Structure formats: structure tokens, C-alpha cells
């Protein structure tokens, strides 16, 4: 698509309020540079898993009837789907924040993302898949540990007391006595 056609399409979309106009060219360039796949945290996780000898597919489409899903990392034989979620786009409880500009556009979009994540998790689980959801800010070591645990069929508990499968799990009480070995 030529630049002129792209600009015309943008103008029509702005007029119809499909999405807001960019505040400036710098912001527009920033938004265009955001990747859907192959983000830095995702590439780092894939590299580490590969170094450990795990083989997988990246950005592999899974058809679940009406729902089509593209996890970031897929272990097809073991039916494990791994998502590395961005804090802004998936509303991280630690780093996510309410948009302050064009909230009429962003707030519903982010809510739809969260709802879609829940639908995808449920559909994958119903189809017999294990789902691992990781935040982009998680340390690489704990992310690898969560994926390896899922591959081995173990419960996936992260250090913050949540489950990598999206469910809240009771965090160990730091005051309690360690279990006898």
C-alpha cells in the first residue's frame, strides 16, 4: 500500500472514529513498531527453552472450532500453549494502568483483550491443553521454570503466589515453618 493510500485510509478511519488519530508522528511510529510476535521477552524465553533441549513451534495456529488461537510458544505433542503477555495490552495487575489519553478507545479495547484471554484459556483447557500465561516482566528463570513444570505435568505456581495458568494460588506463608523433608 502506498503512503498516500495509507494516509487516506487513516483519515477515513479517524473520521468514522474507528480509532483515534495519533498525537504526533513519533507516537504513530512507536505504535507501528509494536510487534505481535517475536517480542524480546518471548525470544529470550524461546532461546532458553531451546538451549535446554525443548523443541516447539512458535506462533502456531490452533483451531478450536469457531475460535482460532495463536500462542507464542506451542508444544504440540504435550499440548502445552505458552503466552508471553505484555503488561499494557493484557492489563498486568502490577504494571498495567488505565489509559489517560483516548480512553474512550483504549479502555474497551483492553477489556476485550482480557475477556479474549479468558475465552482462549477456557477453550484450550476444554480441548485438553495446558495453558501457561507469563507476563513480559517476569524473570527469565521463573518463566522457564513455569514452562518446564507445565511440560512435566506439575502445578505451575509462580513466586508471586499466582498460577501461570491464570488462576490464583495461595502463596506460601513466609512466616510458616518449612515442611519436614
Q: Give the low-confidence spans.
A: 166-181
Briefly, what CATH class of the largest domain? Alpha Beta
Main beta-sheet strand count, sense and barrel state: 4 strands, mixed
Order of helices and strands: HHHEEEEEHEH
The tally of strands reads: 6
Shape from CA axes? elongated
CATH architecture of the largest domain: 3-Layer(aba) Sandwich
Beta-strand percentage range: 5-15%
Q: Structural class, from helix and strand content? A: alpha+beta
Q: Report the CATH topology name of the largest domain.
A: Endonuclease, Chain A
Give the neighbour order of strands across the main sheet.
1-4-5-6
How many whole angstroms does the radius of gyration measure?
Answer: 19 Å
CATH superfamily of the largest domain, by name, is VSR Endonuclease
Q: Provide mean pLDDT, rounded.
A: 79
Q: How many domains, as an integer?
A: 2
| Residue share in helix | 25-40%
Number of helix segments? 5
Cα(first) to Cα(last) distance is 65 Å
Notes on the protein architecture:
This protein has 181 residues and is α+β, with helices and mostly antiparallel strands. It has two domains: 1-33, no CATH class; 35-151, Endonuclease, Chain A. It has five helices and six strands, in the order αααβββββαβα. The chain is elongated.
Amino acid at each position: 500500500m502506498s503512503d498516500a493510500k495509507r494516509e487516506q485510509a487513516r483519515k477515513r478511519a479517524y473520521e468514522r472514529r474507528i480509532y483515534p488519530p495519533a498525537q504526533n508522528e513519533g507516537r504513530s511510529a512507536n505504535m507501528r513498531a509494536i510487534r505481535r510476535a517475536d517480542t524480546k521477552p518471548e525470544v529470550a524465553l524461546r532461546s532458553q527453552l531451546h538451549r535446554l533441549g525443548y523443541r516447539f513451534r512458535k506462533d502456531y495456529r490452533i483451531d478450536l472450532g469457531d475460535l482460532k488461537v495463536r500462542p507464542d510458544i506451542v508444544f504440540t505433542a504435550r499440548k502445552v500453549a505458552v503466552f508471553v503477555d505484555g503488561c499494557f495490552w493484557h492489563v498486568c495487575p502490577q504494571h498495567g494502568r488505565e489509559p489517560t489519553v483516548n480512553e474512550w478507545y483504549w479502555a474497551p479495547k483492553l477489556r476485550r483483550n482480557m475477556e479474549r484471554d479468558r475465552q482462549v484459556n477456557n477453550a484450550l483447557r476444554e480441548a485438553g491443553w495446558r495453558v501457561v500465561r507469563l507476563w513480559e516482566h517476569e524473570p527469565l528463570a521463573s518463566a522457564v521454570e513455569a514452562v518446564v513444570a507445565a511440560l512435566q505435568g506439575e502445578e505451575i505456581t509462580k513466586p508471586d503466589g499466582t498460577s501461570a495458568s491464570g488462576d490464583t494460588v495461595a502463596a506460601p506463608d513466609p512466616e510458616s515453618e518449612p515442611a519436614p523433608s
